[in-house]
Amino acid sequence: MTELTLKDEYTFKNRTAVVEWLKAKGYKVKKSKLYADAKAGLLRVENDGSVLMESVARYLEHPEAGVKEHMETVEAGSDLEVKEYHRRAAIAKAKKTELEAKRLEFEMEKDAGRWLPREDLELEMAGRAAVLEQGFKNLVQVKAADWVHACGGDPKRAGELRAAINAELDGLFNEFARADAFQVLFEEEG
Question: Between 37 and 87, whose confidence is greater?
Answer without folding.
Answer: 37
